[in-house]
Design a protein that fits this description.
- It is a single chain.
- The protein has about 525 residues and is α/β, with parallel strands linked by helices.
- The chain has 2 domains: about 220 residues, Rossmann fold (3-Layer(aba) Sandwich); about 280 residues, Ribokinase (UDP-N-acetylmuramoyl-L-alanine:D-glutamate ligase), CATH 3.40.1190.20.
- Helices cover about 45% and strands about 15% of the residues.
- It has an 11-stranded mixed sheet with strand order 1-9-18-17-16-15-14-13-10-11-12, with helices on both faces. A 7-stranded parallel sheet has the order 4-3-2-5-6-7-8, sandwiched between helices.
- It starts with a strand and ends with a helix.
Length: about 525
Protein backbone atom coordinates (compact mmCIF):
# COMPACT_ATOMS: atom_id res chain seq x y z
CA UNK A 1 0.00 0.00 0.00
CA UNK A 2 1.15 3.53 -0.82
CA UNK A 3 2.46 5.54 2.10
CA UNK A 4 1.30 9.07 2.78
CA UNK A 5 3.37 11.29 5.03
CA UNK A 6 3.26 14.41 7.13
CA UNK A 7 5.55 17.32 6.41
CA UNK A 8 7.75 16.35 9.35
CA UNK A 9 8.03 12.73 8.17
CA UNK A 10 8.98 13.82 4.64
CA UNK A 11 11.56 16.27 5.93
CA UNK A 12 13.07 13.48 8.01
CA UNK A 13 13.39 11.33 4.86
CA UNK A 14 15.10 14.27 3.17
CA UNK A 15 17.47 14.66 6.11
CA UNK A 16 18.42 10.99 6.23
CA UNK A 17 18.96 10.85 2.45
CA UNK A 18 21.31 13.82 2.64
CA UNK A 19 23.11 13.19 5.94
CA UNK A 20 23.25 9.40 6.13
CA UNK A 21 23.21 8.32 2.49
CA UNK A 22 25.29 11.22 1.26
CA UNK A 23 22.91 12.26 -1.52
CA UNK A 24 23.49 15.98 -2.20
CA UNK A 25 20.44 18.19 -1.92
CA UNK A 26 21.37 19.47 -5.38
CA UNK A 27 20.68 15.99 -6.80
CA UNK A 28 17.31 15.78 -5.05
CA UNK A 29 16.32 19.18 -6.42
CA UNK A 30 17.50 18.30 -9.93
CA UNK A 31 15.49 15.09 -9.94
CA UNK A 32 12.44 16.85 -8.52
CA UNK A 33 12.44 19.13 -11.54
CA UNK A 34 13.10 16.31 -13.99
CA UNK A 35 10.34 14.11 -12.57
CA UNK A 36 7.94 17.06 -12.77
CA UNK A 37 8.66 17.30 -16.50
CA UNK A 38 8.14 13.55 -16.92
CA UNK A 39 4.73 13.97 -15.29
CA UNK A 40 3.85 16.81 -17.65
CA UNK A 41 4.85 14.60 -20.60
CA UNK A 42 2.52 11.88 -19.31
CA UNK A 43 -0.30 14.43 -19.31
CA UNK A 44 0.40 16.28 -22.57
CA UNK A 45 2.54 13.90 -24.59
CA UNK A 46 5.13 16.08 -26.32
CA UNK A 47 5.86 19.43 -24.68
CA UNK A 48 7.44 20.77 -27.87
CA UNK A 49 6.39 24.35 -28.50
CA UNK A 50 4.66 24.75 -25.13
CA UNK A 51 5.13 28.12 -23.46
CA UNK A 52 5.83 28.19 -19.73
CA UNK A 53 5.27 30.74 -17.00
CA UNK A 54 7.10 29.46 -13.91
CA UNK A 55 6.31 31.18 -10.60
CA UNK A 56 9.05 30.75 -8.01
CA UNK A 57 9.42 31.66 -4.37
CA UNK A 58 12.75 32.07 -2.63
CA UNK A 59 12.87 28.62 -0.98
CA UNK A 60 13.62 25.11 -2.22
CA UNK A 61 10.24 24.87 -3.94
CA UNK A 62 11.34 27.81 -6.06
CA UNK A 63 14.60 25.96 -6.73
CA UNK A 64 12.58 23.02 -8.09
CA UNK A 65 10.82 25.51 -10.36
CA UNK A 66 14.12 26.82 -11.71
CA UNK A 67 15.14 23.25 -12.61
CA UNK A 68 11.90 22.79 -14.57
CA UNK A 69 12.44 26.14 -16.28
CA UNK A 70 16.04 25.29 -17.24
CA UNK A 71 15.23 21.96 -18.84
CA UNK A 72 12.27 23.37 -20.75
CA UNK A 73 14.45 26.23 -22.01
CA UNK A 74 17.13 23.74 -23.14
CA UNK A 75 14.46 21.87 -25.09
CA UNK A 76 13.69 25.04 -27.03
CA UNK A 77 10.54 26.07 -25.20
CA UNK A 78 9.68 29.66 -24.41
CA UNK A 79 10.08 30.03 -20.65
CA UNK A 80 9.83 33.00 -18.32
CA UNK A 81 10.38 32.70 -14.55
CA UNK A 82 8.46 35.10 -12.34
CA UNK A 83 10.29 35.42 -9.04
CA UNK A 84 8.33 36.74 -6.06
CA UNK A 85 11.43 37.79 -4.17
CA UNK A 86 14.60 39.73 -4.71
CA UNK A 87 17.29 37.57 -6.29
CA UNK A 88 19.64 38.19 -3.37
CA UNK A 89 17.12 36.51 -1.02
CA UNK A 90 17.69 33.07 -2.55
CA UNK A 91 20.09 30.76 -0.72
CA UNK A 92 21.75 27.39 -1.25
CA UNK A 93 20.58 25.19 -4.10
CA UNK A 94 17.67 27.47 -4.94
CA UNK A 95 20.20 30.27 -5.57
CA UNK A 96 22.44 27.88 -7.53
CA UNK A 97 19.63 26.83 -9.88
CA UNK A 98 18.50 30.42 -10.35
CA UNK A 99 22.04 31.38 -11.37
CA UNK A 100 22.37 28.43 -13.77
CA UNK A 101 19.06 29.29 -15.41
CA UNK A 102 20.15 32.89 -15.76
CA UNK A 103 23.58 31.94 -17.12
CA UNK A 104 22.10 29.96 -20.03
CA UNK A 105 19.98 32.92 -21.09
CA UNK A 106 16.87 32.30 -19.03
CA UNK A 107 14.57 35.23 -18.44
CA UNK A 108 13.72 36.13 -14.83
CA UNK A 109 11.14 38.77 -13.99
CA UNK A 110 10.98 39.92 -10.38
CA UNK A 111 7.40 40.68 -9.31
CA UNK A 112 7.00 42.73 -6.15
CA UNK A 113 3.77 44.70 -6.59
CA UNK A 114 0.47 44.80 -8.44
CA UNK A 115 1.76 47.24 -11.06
CA UNK A 116 4.51 44.82 -12.11
CA UNK A 117 2.00 41.98 -12.37
CA UNK A 118 -0.22 44.13 -14.59
CA UNK A 119 2.77 45.06 -16.76
CA UNK A 120 3.56 41.40 -17.49
CA UNK A 121 0.06 39.96 -17.38
CA UNK A 122 -0.40 39.62 -21.14
CA UNK A 123 2.88 37.67 -21.44
CA UNK A 124 1.94 35.39 -18.55
CA UNK A 125 -1.47 34.67 -20.03
CA UNK A 126 0.16 33.62 -23.30
CA UNK A 127 1.63 30.59 -21.53
CA UNK A 128 0.27 27.12 -22.15
CA UNK A 129 1.43 25.89 -18.76
CA UNK A 130 1.87 27.66 -15.44
CA UNK A 131 4.17 26.04 -12.89
CA UNK A 132 3.43 26.78 -9.24
CA UNK A 133 6.76 26.66 -7.37
CA UNK A 134 5.95 29.33 -4.84
CA UNK A 135 5.89 27.88 -1.34
CA UNK A 136 5.50 24.08 -1.29
CA UNK A 137 5.07 22.71 2.21
CA UNK A 138 6.60 25.83 3.75
CA UNK A 139 3.35 27.73 4.24
CA UNK A 140 2.20 28.27 7.83
CA UNK A 141 -0.37 31.04 7.50
CA UNK A 142 -2.71 32.58 4.96
CA UNK A 143 -1.23 34.24 1.89
CA UNK A 144 -0.53 37.96 1.98
CA UNK A 145 0.92 40.66 -0.23
CA UNK A 146 2.34 39.75 -3.61
CA UNK A 147 1.82 36.00 -3.00
CA UNK A 148 -1.89 36.55 -2.41
CA UNK A 149 -2.24 38.65 -5.55
CA UNK A 150 -0.34 36.20 -7.75
CA UNK A 151 -2.36 33.21 -6.55
CA UNK A 152 -5.58 35.11 -7.21
CA UNK A 153 -4.35 35.88 -10.71
CA UNK A 154 -3.22 32.31 -11.45
CA UNK A 155 -6.69 31.07 -10.57
CA UNK A 156 -8.25 33.84 -12.66
CA UNK A 157 -6.08 33.18 -15.73
CA UNK A 158 -7.25 29.56 -15.95
CA UNK A 159 -4.17 28.24 -17.70
CA UNK A 160 -3.12 24.65 -17.05
CA UNK A 161 -1.33 24.75 -13.70
CA UNK A 162 1.13 22.19 -12.33
CA UNK A 163 1.93 22.55 -8.63
CA UNK A 164 5.27 21.26 -7.39
CA UNK A 165 4.93 19.12 -4.24
CA UNK A 166 1.73 20.83 -3.05
CA UNK A 167 -0.49 23.65 -4.36
CA UNK A 168 0.39 26.95 -2.74
CA UNK A 169 -2.04 27.81 0.04
CA UNK A 170 -2.84 24.27 1.23
CA UNK A 171 -1.92 22.85 4.61
CA UNK A 172 0.28 19.84 3.88
CA UNK A 173 -0.78 17.84 6.95
CA UNK A 174 -4.56 17.81 7.37
CA UNK A 175 -6.41 18.81 4.21
CA UNK A 176 -7.28 22.26 5.50
CA UNK A 177 -7.12 25.26 3.20
CA UNK A 178 -6.20 28.80 3.98
CA UNK A 179 -8.61 31.47 2.65
CA UNK A 180 -6.87 31.40 -0.74
CA UNK A 181 -4.97 28.66 -2.58
CA UNK A 182 -3.88 27.57 -6.06
CA UNK A 183 -6.49 25.52 -7.92
CA UNK A 184 -4.07 23.19 -9.66
CA UNK A 185 -4.84 20.93 -12.61
CA UNK A 186 -2.11 18.54 -11.50
CA UNK A 187 0.27 18.13 -8.58
CA UNK A 188 3.54 16.21 -8.48
CA UNK A 189 4.47 15.16 -4.94
CA UNK A 190 8.11 14.39 -4.14
CA UNK A 191 8.87 11.19 -2.25
CA UNK A 192 5.42 10.34 -0.95
CA UNK A 193 2.12 12.21 -1.27
CA UNK A 194 1.60 14.57 1.65
CA UNK A 195 -1.29 13.83 3.97
CA UNK A 196 -2.99 17.15 3.31
CA UNK A 197 -3.29 16.42 -0.40
CA UNK A 198 -5.60 13.49 0.26
CA UNK A 199 -8.39 15.12 2.27
CA UNK A 200 -11.13 17.57 1.41
CA UNK A 201 -11.44 20.46 0.98
CA UNK A 202 -7.75 20.58 -0.03
CA UNK A 203 -8.13 17.58 -2.37
CA UNK A 204 -10.38 19.67 -4.61
CA UNK A 205 -7.39 21.88 -5.46
CA UNK A 206 -4.87 19.13 -6.18
CA UNK A 207 -6.02 17.93 -9.59
CA UNK A 208 -4.29 14.85 -10.96
CA UNK A 209 -1.83 13.66 -8.33
CA UNK A 210 1.36 11.68 -8.77
CA UNK A 211 4.01 10.77 -6.21
CA UNK A 212 7.54 10.46 -7.64
CA UNK A 213 10.89 9.26 -6.34
CA UNK A 214 13.59 11.90 -6.68
CA UNK A 215 16.54 9.57 -5.91
CA UNK A 216 15.59 8.51 -2.40
CA UNK A 217 17.09 5.04 -1.80
CA UNK A 218 14.42 2.35 -1.96
CA UNK A 219 15.38 0.86 1.37
CA UNK A 220 15.03 4.31 2.98
CA UNK A 221 11.53 4.68 1.55
CA UNK A 222 10.64 1.18 2.68
CA UNK A 223 11.81 1.59 6.27
CA UNK A 224 10.89 5.27 6.67
CA UNK A 225 8.63 6.10 9.59
CA UNK A 226 5.04 6.24 8.41
CA UNK A 227 1.69 5.59 10.02
CA UNK A 228 -0.71 6.37 7.17
CA UNK A 229 -1.38 4.40 3.98
CA UNK A 230 -3.72 4.32 0.98
CA UNK A 231 -5.88 1.22 0.64
CA UNK A 232 -5.54 -0.50 -2.72
CA UNK A 233 -7.01 -3.42 -4.62
CA UNK A 234 -3.73 -5.32 -4.73
CA UNK A 235 -3.76 -5.72 -0.96
CA UNK A 236 -7.40 -6.80 -0.96
CA UNK A 237 -6.81 -9.46 -3.59
CA UNK A 238 -4.78 -11.39 -1.07
CA UNK A 239 -7.76 -11.41 1.29
CA UNK A 240 -10.49 -12.22 -1.21
CA UNK A 241 -9.39 -15.76 -1.89
CA UNK A 242 -11.60 -18.27 -3.68
CA UNK A 243 -13.49 -20.60 -1.30
CA UNK A 244 -12.58 -24.29 -1.32
CA UNK A 245 -14.95 -26.54 -3.30
CA UNK A 246 -15.97 -28.30 -0.09
CA UNK A 247 -17.11 -25.07 1.61
CA UNK A 248 -20.57 -24.93 3.22
CA UNK A 249 -22.49 -22.30 5.15
CA UNK A 250 -20.77 -23.20 8.38
CA UNK A 251 -17.40 -22.53 6.80
CA UNK A 252 -18.06 -18.80 6.55
CA UNK A 253 -19.45 -18.02 9.95
CA UNK A 254 -22.63 -16.58 11.39
CA UNK A 255 -23.17 -12.81 11.55
CA UNK A 256 -25.56 -11.41 14.15
CA UNK A 257 -26.95 -7.89 13.70
CA UNK A 258 -28.95 -6.17 16.44
CA UNK A 259 -31.01 -3.02 16.01
CA UNK A 260 -34.10 -1.81 14.25
CA UNK A 261 -37.06 -0.03 15.76
CA UNK A 262 -40.45 1.21 14.62
CA UNK A 263 -39.94 3.24 11.47
CA UNK A 264 -36.28 2.19 11.09
CA UNK A 265 -36.49 -1.50 10.37
CA UNK A 266 -34.90 -1.04 6.97
CA UNK A 267 -31.56 -0.19 8.53
CA UNK A 268 -31.06 -3.53 10.21
CA UNK A 269 -32.45 -5.35 7.17
CA UNK A 270 -29.81 -3.72 4.95
CA UNK A 271 -27.06 -4.67 7.40
CA UNK A 272 -28.20 -8.27 7.70
CA UNK A 273 -28.38 -8.75 3.93
CA UNK A 274 -25.04 -7.00 3.35
CA UNK A 275 -23.36 -9.47 5.70
CA UNK A 276 -24.52 -12.28 3.44
CA UNK A 277 -23.48 -10.45 0.28
CA UNK A 278 -19.84 -10.35 1.36
CA UNK A 279 -19.86 -14.06 2.06
CA UNK A 280 -21.02 -14.70 5.62
CA UNK A 281 -22.56 -18.16 5.75
CA UNK A 282 -25.50 -17.14 7.94
CA UNK A 283 -27.03 -13.88 9.09
CA UNK A 284 -29.47 -13.34 11.95
CA UNK A 285 -31.23 -10.05 12.69
CA UNK A 286 -32.05 -9.40 16.35
CA UNK A 287 -35.17 -7.23 16.22
CA UNK A 288 -38.55 -6.67 17.81
CA UNK A 289 -41.31 -9.23 17.22
CA UNK A 290 -43.09 -6.79 14.87
CA UNK A 291 -40.03 -6.35 12.70
CA UNK A 292 -39.22 -10.04 12.86
CA UNK A 293 -42.49 -10.96 11.18
CA UNK A 294 -42.08 -8.50 8.31
CA UNK A 295 -38.41 -9.31 7.82
CA UNK A 296 -39.02 -13.03 7.51
CA UNK A 297 -41.62 -12.32 4.86
CA UNK A 298 -39.50 -9.87 2.87
CA UNK A 299 -36.00 -11.30 3.34
CA UNK A 300 -36.10 -15.08 3.45
CA UNK A 301 -32.29 -15.30 3.41
CA UNK A 302 -32.04 -13.62 6.83
CA UNK A 303 -32.99 -15.38 10.06
CA UNK A 304 -34.39 -13.42 12.99
CA UNK A 305 -34.25 -13.48 16.77
CA UNK A 306 -37.26 -11.60 18.19
CA UNK A 307 -36.67 -9.57 21.35
CA UNK A 308 -38.85 -7.23 23.43
CA UNK A 309 -41.14 -4.67 21.89
CA UNK A 310 -38.48 -2.20 20.89
CA UNK A 311 -37.48 -1.54 24.50
CA UNK A 312 -34.17 -3.41 24.65
CA UNK A 313 -34.62 -4.43 28.26
CA UNK A 314 -31.71 -5.94 30.17
CA UNK A 315 -33.31 -9.32 29.81
CA UNK A 316 -33.08 -8.89 26.07
CA UNK A 317 -29.36 -8.36 26.45
CA UNK A 318 -29.09 -11.69 28.26
CA UNK A 319 -31.11 -13.35 25.50
CA UNK A 320 -28.83 -11.90 22.83
CA UNK A 321 -25.65 -12.85 24.68
CA UNK A 322 -26.84 -16.42 25.10
CA UNK A 323 -27.84 -16.69 21.44
CA UNK A 324 -24.65 -15.11 20.08
CA UNK A 325 -22.23 -17.06 22.27
CA UNK A 326 -21.20 -19.51 19.56
CA UNK A 327 -21.66 -17.17 16.57
CA UNK A 328 -18.93 -15.30 14.69
CA UNK A 329 -19.48 -11.52 14.80
CA UNK A 330 -21.99 -9.09 16.29
CA UNK A 331 -23.20 -5.72 15.01
CA UNK A 332 -24.98 -3.27 17.31
CA UNK A 333 -26.95 -0.19 16.41
CA UNK A 334 -28.47 0.29 12.94
CA UNK A 335 -31.99 1.66 13.33
CA UNK A 336 -31.98 0.98 17.09
CA UNK A 337 -33.13 4.42 18.17
CA UNK A 338 -31.97 6.28 21.25
CA UNK A 339 -32.91 6.58 24.90
CA UNK A 340 -34.89 4.29 27.13
CA UNK A 341 -32.99 1.16 28.08
CA UNK A 342 -30.81 1.15 25.00
CA UNK A 343 -27.69 2.52 26.68
CA UNK A 344 -27.86 -0.15 29.39
CA UNK A 345 -28.55 -2.79 26.72
CA UNK A 346 -25.48 -1.83 24.69
CA UNK A 347 -23.33 -1.49 27.80
CA UNK A 348 -24.18 -5.02 28.87
CA UNK A 349 -23.52 -6.45 25.40
CA UNK A 350 -20.14 -4.73 25.10
CA UNK A 351 -19.06 -5.99 28.52
CA UNK A 352 -20.47 -9.48 28.13
CA UNK A 353 -19.96 -10.53 24.51
CA UNK A 354 -17.09 -12.81 23.57
CA UNK A 355 -17.52 -11.94 19.86
CA UNK A 356 -15.78 -9.33 17.72
CA UNK A 357 -18.07 -6.29 17.83
CA UNK A 358 -19.08 -3.72 15.23
CA UNK A 359 -20.89 -0.66 16.57
CA UNK A 360 -22.70 1.71 14.23
CA UNK A 361 -25.26 4.51 14.17
CA UNK A 362 -27.45 4.51 17.30
CA UNK A 363 -25.12 1.99 18.88
CA UNK A 364 -22.63 4.87 18.95
CA UNK A 365 -25.11 7.59 19.81
CA UNK A 366 -26.22 5.65 22.87
CA UNK A 367 -22.68 5.43 24.25
CA UNK A 368 -21.59 8.95 23.22
CA UNK A 369 -21.65 10.19 26.81
CA UNK A 370 -19.55 7.24 27.98
CA UNK A 371 -17.17 6.11 25.22
CA UNK A 372 -14.96 4.55 27.93
CA UNK A 373 -17.25 1.53 27.68
CA UNK A 374 -15.34 0.63 24.49
CA UNK A 375 -12.37 -0.22 26.71
CA UNK A 376 -14.45 -3.01 28.28
CA UNK A 377 -14.81 -4.95 25.02
CA UNK A 378 -12.92 -8.25 25.06
CA UNK A 379 -11.40 -7.48 21.65
CA UNK A 380 -11.06 -4.06 19.98
CA UNK A 381 -14.48 -3.10 18.63
CA UNK A 382 -14.97 -1.63 15.16
CA UNK A 383 -16.87 1.65 15.29
CA UNK A 384 -18.26 3.30 12.16
CA UNK A 385 -19.13 6.95 12.89
CA UNK A 386 -19.91 9.68 10.41
CA UNK A 387 -18.39 13.07 11.35
CA UNK A 388 -21.35 14.11 13.53
CA UNK A 389 -21.24 10.87 15.50
CA UNK A 390 -17.46 11.14 15.77
CA UNK A 391 -17.85 14.64 17.18
CA UNK A 392 -20.23 13.43 19.88
CA UNK A 393 -17.98 10.52 20.82
CA UNK A 394 -14.85 12.68 21.00
CA UNK A 395 -16.62 15.67 22.61
CA UNK A 396 -15.45 18.06 19.90
CA UNK A 397 -17.20 19.95 17.11
CA UNK A 398 -18.02 18.43 13.73
CA UNK A 399 -15.94 21.21 12.17
CA UNK A 400 -12.92 20.10 14.18
CA UNK A 401 -13.44 16.50 13.08
CA UNK A 402 -13.58 17.48 9.43
CA UNK A 403 -10.56 19.78 9.69
CA UNK A 404 -8.38 16.89 10.86
CA UNK A 405 -10.04 13.62 9.92
CA UNK A 406 -6.87 11.56 10.04
CA UNK A 407 -5.70 12.88 13.39
CA UNK A 408 -9.13 12.63 14.98
CA UNK A 409 -9.60 9.00 13.98
CA UNK A 410 -6.06 8.02 15.01
CA UNK A 411 -6.31 9.71 18.41
CA UNK A 412 -9.68 8.13 19.19
CA UNK A 413 -8.56 4.63 18.21
CA UNK A 414 -5.46 4.82 20.36
CA UNK A 415 -7.33 6.25 23.35
CA UNK A 416 -10.26 3.80 23.28
CA UNK A 417 -8.52 0.72 21.83
CA UNK A 418 -10.86 0.36 18.86
CA UNK A 419 -10.83 0.30 15.08
CA UNK A 420 -12.34 3.60 13.93
CA UNK A 421 -13.96 3.79 10.50
CA UNK A 422 -14.52 7.52 10.10
CA UNK A 423 -16.93 7.73 7.19
CA UNK A 424 -17.13 10.48 4.60
CA UNK A 425 -15.27 11.53 1.48
CA UNK A 426 -11.96 9.65 1.83
CA UNK A 427 -13.01 7.35 4.66
CA UNK A 428 -10.30 6.74 7.28
CA UNK A 429 -9.71 3.39 8.99
CA UNK A 430 -7.62 3.96 12.13
CA UNK A 431 -6.19 1.17 14.30
CA UNK A 432 -5.35 1.08 18.02
CA UNK A 433 -1.67 0.83 17.06
CA UNK A 434 -1.75 4.36 15.65
CA UNK A 435 -1.72 3.36 11.99
CA UNK A 436 -4.40 4.70 9.68
CA UNK A 437 -5.56 3.78 6.18
CA UNK A 438 -7.23 6.07 3.68
CA UNK A 439 -9.81 4.86 1.18
CA UNK A 440 -9.94 6.47 -2.26
CA UNK A 441 -13.01 4.69 -3.69
CA UNK A 442 -16.53 6.09 -3.52
CA UNK A 443 -18.43 9.15 -4.70
CA UNK A 444 -21.34 11.40 -3.62
CA UNK A 445 -23.84 8.60 -4.28
CA UNK A 446 -22.89 7.28 -0.83
CA UNK A 447 -24.27 10.42 0.81
CA UNK A 448 -27.72 8.92 1.21
CA UNK A 449 -29.66 7.12 3.90
CA UNK A 450 -28.88 3.46 4.44
CA UNK A 451 -25.45 3.27 2.83
CA UNK A 452 -23.79 3.35 6.25
CA UNK A 453 -25.95 0.41 7.36
CA UNK A 454 -24.71 -1.48 4.32
CA UNK A 455 -21.10 -0.76 5.27
CA UNK A 456 -21.59 -1.89 8.87
CA UNK A 457 -23.18 -5.12 7.68
CA UNK A 458 -20.33 -5.73 5.26
CA UNK A 459 -17.72 -5.32 8.00
CA UNK A 460 -19.65 -7.73 10.21
CA UNK A 461 -19.96 -10.25 7.39
CA UNK A 462 -16.24 -10.17 6.65
CA UNK A 463 -15.42 -10.71 10.32
CA UNK A 464 -17.90 -13.59 10.44
CA UNK A 465 -16.12 -15.35 7.58
CA UNK A 466 -12.76 -15.11 9.30
CA UNK A 467 -11.21 -11.71 8.61
CA UNK A 468 -9.61 -9.81 11.47
CA UNK A 469 -11.44 -6.67 12.52
CA UNK A 470 -8.97 -4.43 10.70
CA UNK A 471 -8.97 -6.58 7.55
CA UNK A 472 -12.77 -6.57 7.54
CA UNK A 473 -12.82 -2.78 7.80
CA UNK A 474 -10.28 -2.41 4.97
CA UNK A 475 -12.14 -4.77 2.65
CA UNK A 476 -15.61 -3.43 3.38
CA UNK A 477 -14.69 0.24 3.02
CA UNK A 478 -12.91 -0.28 -0.30
CA UNK A 479 -15.55 -2.59 -1.80
CA UNK A 480 -18.41 -0.38 -0.56
CA UNK A 481 -16.89 2.65 -2.33
CA UNK A 482 -16.05 0.68 -5.46
CA UNK A 483 -19.67 -0.49 -5.71
CA UNK A 484 -20.76 3.15 -5.82
CA UNK A 485 -18.10 3.85 -8.45
CA UNK A 486 -19.40 0.98 -10.58
CA UNK A 487 -22.88 2.50 -10.40
CA UNK A 488 -21.48 5.88 -11.47
CA UNK A 489 -19.97 4.36 -14.62
CA UNK A 490 -23.46 3.88 -16.07
CA UNK A 491 -25.56 6.36 -14.15
CA UNK A 492 -25.42 9.61 -12.18
CA UNK A 493 -23.86 10.81 -8.94
CA UNK A 494 -26.99 11.13 -6.82
CA UNK A 495 -29.60 8.43 -7.44
CA UNK A 496 -28.02 5.29 -5.96
CA UNK A 497 -30.18 3.77 -3.22
CA UNK A 498 -28.86 1.63 -0.41
CA UNK A 499 -30.74 -1.40 -1.76
CA UNK A 500 -29.09 -0.99 -5.15
CA UNK A 501 -25.74 -0.64 -3.40
CA UNK A 502 -26.23 -4.02 -1.71
CA UNK A 503 -26.85 -5.61 -5.09
CA UNK A 504 -23.63 -4.11 -6.48
CA UNK A 505 -21.43 -5.68 -3.81
CA UNK A 506 -20.84 -8.89 -5.84
CA UNK A 507 -19.79 -6.89 -8.92
CA UNK A 508 -17.38 -4.87 -6.79
CA UNK A 509 -15.78 -7.98 -5.30
CA UNK A 510 -15.64 -9.61 -8.72
CA UNK A 511 -13.82 -6.65 -10.24
CA UNK A 512 -11.08 -6.89 -7.62
CA UNK A 513 -10.72 -10.66 -7.81
CA UNK A 514 -10.81 -10.95 -11.61
CA UNK A 515 -8.07 -8.35 -11.96
CA UNK A 516 -5.78 -10.89 -10.30
CA UNK A 517 -6.55 -13.97 -12.31
Amino acid sequence: MQKIVSTFQMREIDRIAIKEYGIPETILMENAGLQSIVFLEEIFGSLKGKRFSVFCGKGNNGGDGFVVARHMLLKGNKVIVYLLSEKKSLKGDAKLNMEIFQSIGGSIVVLQNDAEIKEHESFIRDADIIVDALLGTGISSELKGIYKTVVEKINEWKRFCLSLDIPTGLCSDNGAVYPLNIKADATVSYGFPKTGLMFYPAAESVGKLKGVNISFPLDLLKKSACDAFILDAEYLRELLFAPPPSAHKGTFGHAVVAGGSTGMGGAIALSALSALKVGAGLSTAVVSKELSDSMEAGMPEVMTLPVGKGGYENGDADKLLEFAFDKSALLLGPGMGQGGNRTAFIDKIIRGSNLPLVIDADGLNNIAENPDILLKAKTPAVITPHPGEMARLASISTEKVNSNRLGTAKDFSKKFNCVTVLKGARTVVALPSGEAYLNMTGNPNLASGGTGDVLAGMITGFIAKGFSSSEAAFAAVYIHGLAADIYLEKSDAFSLSASELVNLIPASISRIVKAVR
